[in-house]
Amino acid sequence: AVFADVGPAGGRMHTARSRNDEVAACIRYRFREDLLDAAEATLDLRGALLDAAAAETETVVPGFTHRQHAQPTTVGHLLASYAGAVARDTDRLLAAYERTNRSPLGAAAFAGTTFDVDRGRTADLLGFHDTIENAADAVTARDFLIEGCGAFAALSATLSGLSTDLIEGAKDGHVDLDDAYASTSSIMPQKKNPDSLELVRAVAGDAVGDLTGLLTTLKGLPRAYNRDLQRATPHAWDAVDITTEATEVAAGAVATADWDAAACAADAGAGFSTA
């Protein structure tokens, strides 16, 4: 198809290129979009948390330390605390994006090329804001994946804590999860199980596992290209998919949850928490 459009010049497409710098560029090209999609999901979650917090500023609820009644607080205060954590998760994802969005093209195999290519122009055409100066670094580096997966692992930890607070709140009768985020028991019809949030909570283990697997794969690799790198990216893609989806589910659960102000208030003074 290229030859049909441009003629013999199409045969020059691979000039000054190697699989090594092309693969590195493709990984960065995809991962930067994944980071932005995840950041957008965190913004939606933060919005849901802040909206719910604003609606529940006067809903008194028990606060806990060591999972024991400690001091009364409000649902708004609790949810806003997670909004602050999610804001930092967004910052981490965007910081990872900045270091991901750099072009390795022109590095060729790992020592550059004698062809007179304009690396800056290539980077600009592909939407990269900068190039990676050292050619060996450009084709070898996967630390941007480590940074991104670290951000996903941190985000998953935030989601895990939020899920547990909502699960415990549902158990105590403080909050009713929307039916779309719960399921029934196969044998006990009186139950409403917070399945979606349990799965969100479980994602933290998977995301940490992906980060650990990535670090283990990259440990000890010399410059420049090694086939081990092929086993690095599956960890990153898995972390992207599961954490972004979990963030979207958490946002929906928060936005549709129904807090029972009377039940919360009745429980807030238990255990001498107002003494």
In a few lines, what is going on in this structure?
The protein is mainly alpha-helical.
Describe the secondary structure blueprint for this structure.
Blueprint: H1 2-6, H2 19-55, E1 60-65, E2 68-74, H3 75-100, E3 102-103, H4 119-125, E4 130-131, H5 135-140, H6 143-171, E5 175-176, H7 195-218, H8 233-256, E6 258-259, H9 261-268
Parallel strand pairs: 3-4
Antiparallel strand pairs: 1-2, 5-6
Helix pairs in contact: 2-3, 2-8, 3-6, 6-7, 6-8, 7-8
Notes on the protein architecture:
By secondary structure, the protein is mainly alpha-helical. The chain has one domain (17-260): Fumarase/aspartase (Central domain) (Fumarase C, Chain A, domain 2, Up-down Bundle). It has nine helices and six strands; from the N terminus they run H-H-E-E-H-E-H-E-H-H-E-H-H-E-H. The chain has helices spanning 2-6, 19-55, 75-100, 119-125, 135-140, 143-171, 195-218, 233-256, 261-268, and strands at 60-65, 68-74, 102-103, 130-131, 175-176, 258-259. The strands form three sheets. Strands 1-2 form a two-stranded antiparallel sheet. Strands 3-4 form a two-stranded parallel sheet. Strand 1 (60-65) and strand 2 form a beta hairpin. Helix 6 runs parallel beside helix 8. The chain is elongated, with a radius of gyration of 24 Å. The N and C termini lie far apart (79 Å). The model has no long low-confidence stretch (mean pLDDT 95). It is an enzyme of class 4 (lyase). Residues 11-209 form the Fumarate lyase N-terminal domain. GO terms for molecular function: argininosuccinate lyase activity. This is Argininosuccinate lyase. Keywords: Lyase.
